[in-house]
Amino acid sequence: METEALAAPLAGPRPRLTARLGTCCRRGADAAIALVALVLLAPVLAAIAIAIRLDSPGSPIFRQRRLGLDGQPFVVNKFRTMTDTADPERHRQYIRELIAQGRGAAQEDLGGETIFKLAIDDRITRVGRVLRRWSLDELPQLWNVVRGEMALVGPRPVVPYEAEHYPDWYHQRFAVSPGLTGLWQVSGRNERTYEEMVALDVEYAQRRSLRLDITILVKTIGIVLSRKGAA
To answer: What pLDDT, in 10s, does the model give residues 183-212?
Structure first.
């Protein structure tokens, strides 16, 4: 009886310790893979940056404040695909209406701005269209993964003003780190409504596992190569 009594207090922390260890290992693996990818892709990244700079004025890198794990803000990095003077106000207004009214529409991520899918958008540069077609604009986010702000797989990182209008259940998507790719990206992406996107992010947060991550990564490669859902 005395042995059982002494052992009882240790039973609770062990699962939490195991989960914490698993999270640390996952983050370490993500960072290592991202760092290797950055080194191997360095010539490609440099060539893309030069092409963007020659195509239009402004920094080759688009930086924007996003929300990550537990809703904590960080700055996301992407290759710029729009003109340097692109106004984000249209996106802000659209998101406010979309969430408040519960409406859904086909959408896509345009240079950090999720808006109605447009057949022609004169804000997108010539090089930007190529980068989006092959999802190359996302590559600088590998640095966010190295820094521990993102993971290889996870929910789409959202801008702060999106979360301002979230109903309570949407916040479950912040239970895990945002990712370069995720369940939404391999489950229809542009054919999904905003609420469906969030539901897929929440589903991932609840089902997260190494097996699911590998499945999503493999599917992402196929989708990128097929250019399915590309702008």
So the answer is: 999 988 767 788 888 999 999 999 999 999
Residues facing 62 on adjacent strands? 78
The predicted-structure confidence for 30-69, as pLDDT tens digits, reads as follows: 999 999 999 999 999 999 999 999 999 999 999 999 999 9
- Annotated domain spans of the chain: 28-226
Q: Which contacts qualify for 165-173: CB closer than 8 Å, 24 or more apart?
A: 165/95, 165/96, 165/99, 165/100, 166/99, 167/99, 169/202, 170/198, 170/202, 171/71, 172/202, 172/205, 172/206, 173/198, 173/201, 173/202, 173/205
Q: Quick one: pLDDT at residue 113? A: 42
Residues 64-93 as b/e (b if ≥16 CB within 10 A, e otherwise) read bebbbbeeeebebbbbbbbbeebeeeebee
Coil, strand or helix at 181: strand
H/E stretch holding 171: none
Higher-pLDDT residue of 149 and 5 is 149
Which contacts qualify for 185-188: CB closer than 8 Å, 24 or more apart?
A: 185/156, 185/216, 185/220, 185/223, 185/229, 186/216, 186/219, 186/220, 186/223, 188/229
Quote the pTM value. Answer: 0.81
- In single-letter form, the type of residue at position 60 comes to P
Are the CB atoms for 61 and 140 separated by under 8 Å? yes
